Amino acid sequence: MKFRINWLSSCVSELTNSIPGFGNLNDSEKEKLIIQKFLLSDVKLSSVGMLPENVTTLHLVHLPGPYVLQVNKIDNINCQGYTFRV
After folding, report:
1. Domain count, the chain
2. Among 34, 40, 27, 24, which residue's Cα sits nearest to residue 2?
3. Within a domain: residue 68?
4. Which pLDDT score is estimated for 34?
5. How confident is the model at residue 67, as a pLDDT?
6. GO terms for biological process (predicted)?
7. Are 46 and 12 in contact (CB under 8 A)?
């Protein structure tokens, strides 16, 4: 996962201002807090795309490694005309 540098800078600044002693935490503790913020963020704003450019044309292909994906919309195909938004 690659964070956008402007998002990461903003995140660290916000954590520094909101958590007393954030600057004194070890890297592992800081990383946990940043990941928590990331999980609540809009992936388009916080990270750089990692899927292959031609992903929409791939079929039955194994993509090695973990990927972070964001669900923007869920359609219930069993119930016409009703859309869940996430």
Report:
1. 1
2. 34
3. yes
4. 96
5. 81
6. double-strand break repair via homologous recombination; resolution of meiotic recombination intermediates
7. no
